[in-house]
Here is the input.
Amino acid sequence: MTSKFHIQDLSVYFHGINVIQHLSLQIPDKEILGIIGPASSGKTTFLRVLNRMNELEQGSRVEGRVLMDGEDIYRSECDPVKLRKRVGMVFALPVPLPMSIYDNIVYGPTLAGASNRHRLDELVEKSLKDAFLWEEVKDRLKTSGLRLSGGQQQRLCLARVLAMQPEVILLDEPCSGLDPISTTKIEEALTKLKQDYTIILVTNNTKQAARISDNTAFFLMGQLIEIGPTDRIFTAPREKTTNDYVTGRFG
Amino acid sequence: MKLLGEKGVQKILLVTAFSAISALLLIALFIIKEGLPFLITYGLGDFLLSSDWQPQSGKFGILPMVAASLWVTLGAMIVGAPLGVAGAIFLSEFAPRPVMRVIKPTIELLAAIPSVVYGFIGVMVLAPLIRSSLGGPGLSLLAASIILGIMILPTIISISIDSILAVPQSYREGSLALGATVWQTIHMVTIRAARSGIIASIILGMGRAIGETMAVIMVAGNAVKIPRSALDSVRSLTANIALEMSYATGLHREALFATGVILFVVIITLNSIAILAIRKRVGKR
Amino acid sequence: MRIPPRFTQHGAIALLGGGTLVTVIILVFIVVFVLEKGLPVLSLSFLFSNPEEMGRAGGIFPTLIGTIVLPLLAILIATPLGLGTSVYLTEYTRESRITKVIRFGTDCLAGIPSIIFGLFGFIFFVTTLGMGWSILSGGLTLAFMILPTIIRTSEEAIKAVPKSYRDVSFSLGATRWQTVRRVILPNALPGILTGVMLGIGRSIGETAAVIFTAGSSLRLPSSIFDSTRTMAVHFYILAREGISSENAYGTAAALIIAVLLVNLTAYWLMHWFISRRS
Here is the structure.
């Protein structure tokens, strides 16, 4: 098992407030890592460290090293724009851009310079198939992405990320507003996608983590409490707080 | 654009961002450059306080014009402020919302009517009316005040309505729950809360009245003398500049620029006060 | 004896409503009066034929050209500058002393009366830079005048674009400029166009600034270095010199219609923009 990410002593500050404290962990390649924990435990902040999206907020500061494939993504030679092409993100609320389904998906690739129409068409088809959305929209690729249902929009967002052909997919509570059927479809897609991508999934729903993640990390108030294979975390966790959280004693 | 890169684009945008402040500085610079030497040599006191305006003999006392501008502005405030604030209160607190939503844009649209048209109406309708009912030449301080008052109505109404609507509903509810009537709530609570915005709108209106040129030229009569009654013909500072600029040379021209400097300073000061008041409210929200 | 609050309320409503009615009536009267006297004069031949005897007879064609060309030049100059400013303020910096200074400058510029712009345009463009009374001088001066309007409205429009769009664009590996160009500007376009329309409307009605910079030549301009007369200036001259009351009304009617059309377009755009958002 190789590590895609090696995080060493990471601390994150927002306007002086220490929101993540001395975090160290390794994230395995081509597996699903579920991150669970109550609200405000730093899960989303941690996720946004991995694609340097936290820099867009005023007043944020990062200390420590975040190594991806052995190289620190925060070193000065590393271009965040290029990084985000390798590390894609799906947000909690589905946000289709106000364009057609087709244009949503090719947005990222065309910015990177892709222009061959034929190849773009193939890319759109593959991405939508991998996101389990192709069958439902293949006849209306030119209609606006805003017309889709919530679950469809979220899968569109996933397809949009896949079209970038990244190495890592970050998901921030992707199913929080969705109905069970859409949730199942997305979980199905992720399970299939982990063969080719490293997936990191932040979720408030512990059962979802139990269902699909290979490994699970438990965050509490900016600190990593425990990380390990999902089976062990949920049946025989080493820390008492982990046990209390997964059995629902607090949350 | 690809040639420029992100840094290049950012630099270009930074340059454009300074265009407004550069324009302001440029304007200030040139107006002051042309007018300040005159003020220094002729003397600010003589300039402002003498009523002897005879450019041919080198006499540049602008007191009649200062008086005219002050009186016309005062008159415009007397006409425009009560009418404007009344309209704003009625439209935001009493009129049904759909009615307000139609009338407010209509009034704002009417604000776009060019000032020369307002002046023309003053000449063709108002001045004869004044002449026949009150006497005098008709083209007078009174006519200018009324026309200017009408011209600043949209400014006062529009900004006042925005200020009144910005007062939180909880203030009104708190008052009504204590048994006050709607009108009592309005004048004891709502207006007090919206006070700074309403005053700001009046100050902005005042700035506009002082700076108005074309309409005043057309209806005020343009005589260079200190007004003794509202029916007298007067010439405002702005009218003076516009009327004489086309043929003024040398010291005469500098005097007109000096008038411009005075106007510039007064209006920038007024507007800064108003803007600070408005931006502070928006900041609080 | 204290008047019961109920009565004061009724009195207040009557007074306020009366005041509002007076305002609306006056403003509507102005438009109706001018249109009533001016529309009969307004005909295609009036608009498209040349003036004779300094405007005593004939049409107003050269002024029509002036009224189109001058605002057009002003918009061409002011829009890139104003748009650049608002994009920079909203997307490229955070609130700081510099942004406060820029905003203060914009607000001050907005309050300067047109006669001062006229004086400035005259001393700077016409005289110092040697452009003479010309479309160029007039267009540049008008551009300074409408710059604050463009900046304000486009900043509102850009701020109204949801933050989540920016997040998504960045997360897909877009640079800041790509995000602005591909996502933010297209979405802010209706609001920006509203500002452009308002700027055009203001330019059309402007007189004091135009007379001292573009002059008042009645000849058809052949280049941007020629002087020209706009409908507003023509109307002012006709009215003040008492040249032709009839043609004055006709020009005024044309002026009002032009201004109203432009502003109505701006409002319509704004409403379409708002309804698309929600």
Summary: Residues 117-130 of chain A form the longest helix (14 residues).
